[in-house]
Amino acid sequence: MPDSRAQQVVEVRAALSHALGAAEDALEAAQNAYEQAVTRRARVVAAARERRRRLAEQRDKRLHEIDEQHERDLAALAGAAAETALAAAPGAAGLPWDRWRPTPAGTQAPAPELRVGRLLLPYDGEVPALAPLLDHGHVVVEGDARIGDDVVAGLLLRALGGAQAGRVRLTGYDPEQLGGGLAGFAPLAPAGVLSFVGPGGLPALLDELVDHVRRINETVLAGEHSSLRELAAATGRRPEPWRVAILLGAGRADELSRHERGQLDRLLRTGAACGVHLIIRGLPVRPAAGIEVVSAAEGDAARLSGCGDLPVCLDAGPPASVITRTARQIADEVAAGPAPVALDSLLPEHEWQQSSARALTAPLGDSPQGAPVLVTLSDYPPHALIAGPSGTGKTNLIYAWMGALAARYSPAELAFYLLDFKEGVSFARFAPGRRDPSWLPHVRLVGVNVNTDREFGLALLRFLGAELRSRADAAKRHEVTNLAELRAEDPAGSWPRIVAVVDEFQVLLSGRDAVAAEAVDLLEDLARRGRSQGIHLVLASQDVSGIEALWGRPALVAQFSLRIALPRARRVLAETNQAADSLPRYHAVVNADSGAIEANRVVRVPDAGNRERWSELQHRLWRHRPPELSAPRLFDGDAIPRLEDSPEFRTFTPADTVPAPVVLLGETIDVASRSAQTVLRRAPGRTIAVLGTRVDEACAVLGTAARSLAAQFTPGAAQFSVACLDTDAGAAVDALKAYLPAETGYFDNDNIDVLLEGAAERAEFGSAADKPWFLLLYAVDAAPGGTSELLRRIMRQGPERRIHLIGWWRGAALLRDTLGGQGTRTDTVGAWVALDVHGSELSPYYPGHGSPNWYPRPWRALHFDRSVHRGAEVIIPYGPS
Ligand SMILES: Nc1ncnc2c1ncn2[C@@H]1O[C@H](COP(=O)(O)OP(=O)(O)OP(=O)(O)O)[C@@H](O)[C@H]1O
């Protein structure tokens, strides 16, 4: 049993040991498995971490890529926006203030979009924030007052700077600050670019703007275009300026009456199409299309209605110095006026093609709308009155008109007679000159420097009067009543329309003397009857007095129904017609209805003063002139005529017998160049006295007389004796010797008595068959005492025996002494030439009880010949050869 117990123990032990071993194995296996599991877990964890890290990395990379793409897209969008904005607001519309300058858009419209600030976008560059104005809409500014002021100033400056000077006009309504809000722009006011309305002026301003819009719709757009912008695009011309009204209210809701609100709404609706724009602050306005609302605020809190919710940073206001400088510059440019237009714009495509049978029609320039303004002279209106203060372009306008006419009508259709009473030679260009031999073929007469020779004006009027009569006679013969009919009945006749231009005509009418009286009578007759005979008067004056000179003659003035007023011209239009006051430079109001307001037409006159342009036209027409056409007569009051040029003198040929020798004395002041003459027939009174103290002029007259006589006789056919009793005349007498026959006798104080005794004796005892004897006595009054009786005998009886005395007395009273003193008869002196002798002193030698109208003036004389003259004539002594 023990064995079995032991056995059992052994067996138990063995079993236990086996169990233990198995347990240990199991433990080891479990431990191994555990360790493996731990290792595996660690690997899984590590793998999981690694995967997460990789995923995160990939996500970050992708996110980064997305961010980058987003930024690129945003930048592209912002760049495009910036580019568009810069293109929409170029130059003055968008430049920042530190680089800002006006950039007037030549003939193009200024930019409609104006920069007010920048959009705040996550973008490196700048994206301008723009507000549309000109031709597009209106701007309402709300919010912060100070910043709002800056916005308004900026908009105005940009709008002004982008357009040509004067094309944007501002009107300010600022009752709170009385214009203070626009103070920097004040220099624009004198030039008319900026005007203010007072505190109570809003209704009137709104009414006026509404009216302006209505007028543009009716007369400018006239149903053909929907807006001025469209009209400008279609025609290339912008007829009306932009009008910007700045309405700065006080911010009260009840600030506008019903009427004002209605007008404001109308303007907001319809103004932009007509170039009327409003910039409004502090007035209640309902939001609507075409109105950009700027909410002014600091920093990024500002907004623009056109930019939605995007934050905007508004620009600071323009520097005050930039505003004032620009305003001054614009004002100066406006005052200086627009650039001149060229004369060529008035010329037709084909020259000399028009007939003047019914009228003379030519453009004078362009209207503000761009259409040519045609001016007509015909039965109505027949005559023109032009007025303009000195320097406003009156002469230029006459040139332009003449150029336009001369290019359209040939010289057979149109003739000009020109007279300029101004100092200067503005019409001389139409006549051949020393430097330029050409002339305007239509010009028949040019009178310059005639301001002291009003007689020349009279001569022109008399000439036209004679022409009028001859046309009226022809009309009667052909049984017609006007030029058009006459030309139809008499196609071979020469009946050009005549245009007589008298510049500064008031000089002719000034003074209450015989010249003025006759001139007015002649003018009246010409004005009344000239209309149907194709004679047209164009009177120009710079001076109100010129127009007023006519005012006492309503019948005369009424004939001048074509009125042309240059800037600031007065009285030429109707009393209430102030159109000339606001004319820009180089413009004129043309009015074919005696100045009635409704007939006003504004014209921009081209520059015809430019010599080169003018001579181009003149030369062209001159080269085409008909060969038979002679050069115009140029009467220059400053020129001293020469005897050699006298047509009469040129006809003289020496002869053995001359029954009626002609004495030339000087040039008459006349339309045709003509010499004053006295004929020394064998008849009582054929003595010529030259009276006055002026040595040169007296010598010139006596010299002319002697030379003209000598030219008519063959040597020896007439006897000449010359006595010089004043040493001052010695040189003139010496110079004369070359022209007189060799056997001429010369005498002085020492032997004058011998000459006079011989002449007196022959005067009494000679025969009519004797050859003529001409005594030329210089300073006769200096002859020794006792010779007067001899002189009287010569004068009384000499002419019958062909002895003629041509003497110079140094005063009218001295001639009287020679003749025998007060009360003696003066009819032995049948002809005289007075120099510096007053009219009243000449009455003894003048028929009737009056005396001639004569105010002595240098190098002019008064000639009277009892045998042929009714009145005395003014002459110009011929100068030395
Ligand atoms: N339409 C124009 N375009 C360009 N320049 C012009 C024009 N009209 C006038 N001018 C210039 O202005 C100046 C004055 O013109 P103009 O001599 O015609 O004036 P006016 O009124 O006749 O003056 P005045 O009576 O003193 O002679 C001239 O230098 C002329 O060339």
UniProtKB/TrEMBL annotation:
GO biological process: cell division
Any Pfam family: FtsK_SpoIIIE
Record carries keyword Transmembrane helix: no
UniProt keyword list: ATP-binding, Cell cycle, Cell division, Coiled coil, Nucleotide-binding
UniProt: ATP binding residues: 388-395
Gene3D superfamilies hit by this protein: P-loop containing nucleotide triphosphate hydrolases
GO molecular function: ATP binding; DNA binding
Location of the FtsK domain: 370-575
Coiled coil: 13-40
Name of the protein: Cell division protein FtsK
